[in-house]
Amino acid sequence: MSPATVQSQRAVVLHGPKDLRLEERPFWLPPYNHAQVAIQSTGLCGSDLHYYLEGRNGDFALQAPLVLGHESAGVITAVGPGVKNLALGQRVAIEAGIMCNECNYCQSGRYNLCKDMRFASSAKTFPHLDGTLQDRMNHPAHAIHPLPDNCSFEQAALAEPLSVLIHAARRAKLASGQRVLVFGVGTIGVLACALANAYGASQVVAIDINQARLDFAKSHGFASQTYCLPMADKAKTTEEQLQRAKDNVSTVLSKFNEPEGFDVVFECTGAEPCIQMSIHAAVTGGKVMLIGMGSRNVMLPLSAAALREVDIQGSFRYANTYPEALKLLATGKLRNIEKLITHRFTLADTARAFELLARGKDEDGNMAIKIIIGPSSS
Fold first, then answer.
1. Which of 107, 198, 281, 343 keeps 20 to 30 A from 83, CA to CA?
2. Please, what is the average pLDDT of the chain?
3. Rounded distance between C-alpha atoms, residue 33 and residue 213, angstroms
């Protein structure tokens, strides 16, 4: 192997729960139809945090060391044979999923459902596909997207979670003038609010159990009104839980002066009580978009949905969303979206970043929402 072919770089590698190691790794020039990207920004995600804390994300457990990270942007530093659409020095965003491009789902434009999908930083498939918490990575050129001139690397790192909401909004047929309710105002929930505003929603309101996050959403204009759900003891029976969900929604709708409910409800928590509430919170003929990943088995008030023709739709990742996401980020239509980025770390300090994300607040009591990992210090 020629020295021109093999290079050395640093990567943050997860070997098990809370076992992150900064390692030197050999690195090859990109193969056919791939490009090499020098990573400039990676946003840490909730799934990354699960892997860091537990060595698994739901059913997907580490079977070998894995590089995390999948919300990323960088600069093209090499292109492999066959690459026509990318050039050295070009600023790009990385779409972490690698679809087969051959199955019926891929051919019909729903490649997020591709059964042969390999997703960088996910342990679902083996051998695992390493993510973006490294100096450079090779990636298929068709999953690399040029950045608009006015889109920064940090903004481009938000294109991945924003894509989740664009996909959900498309499935919901979100349109101007609709009233939108969002359950949960973490990163995904705030992006749901921001996108609804950008699409011309007439009203955007949010519900959470965390008053600080609600204050953040309202103070920066993501939600016009908010409601903090009171903490309560766990319901003793299913009937009690379902009745409590209905009663809570009645209070919420009264608070928001929308007794009939909302046209579109984005459920971004994955928590069973919120999923139950979302059905009652939708207007007759409205839509509930299930975005949050949480409870695996949920008791639903299905009759309340069926008798009012409330559509309950699942939404998984995204397909063909990156161009729109990057355009929205570049045009400033997502007002104050940069406020989501609350903390920044270098690659060498990634473990500290994960610990902060797990705590939720820094030493000064400031809320940690989206943490960006930048390049290694020289």
1. 107
2. 95
3. 43
CA-closest candidate to residue 205, choices 225, 190, 183, 185: 225
The closest alpha carbon to 110, from 101, 119, 118, belongs to 101
Pairing of strands 60-61, 97-98: unpaired
Distance CA 172, CA 166 (A): 10
Residue 326: closest CA among 149, 169, 96: 149
Residue 127 main-chain phi, psi, to 5 deg:
-60, 145
DSSP 126: S
* CA 349 from centroid of its chain's CA atoms: 22
Give, as one character, the DSSP assignment of residue 200. Answer: T
Give the rounded distance of the alpha carbon of 321 from its chain centre. Answer: 13
Evaluated on CA atoms 145, 57, 15, 347, the torsion sign reads: positive
Strands 262-267 and 282-290: parallel
Average pLDDT over residues 194-205: 98
Mean pLDDT, to the nearest integer, of 219-236?
93
**pLDDT tens for each residue of 254-286:** 999 999 999 999 999 999 999 999 999 999 999
Q: How far apart are CA 207 and CA 218, in angstroms?
A: 11
Query: Model-level pTM?
Result: 0.95
Task: Average the pLDDT over 156-166 and give the result.
Answer: 98
Residue type, 141: A
Nearest CA among 199, 188, 184 for reference residue 315: 188
Token pair of 42, please?
């990676």
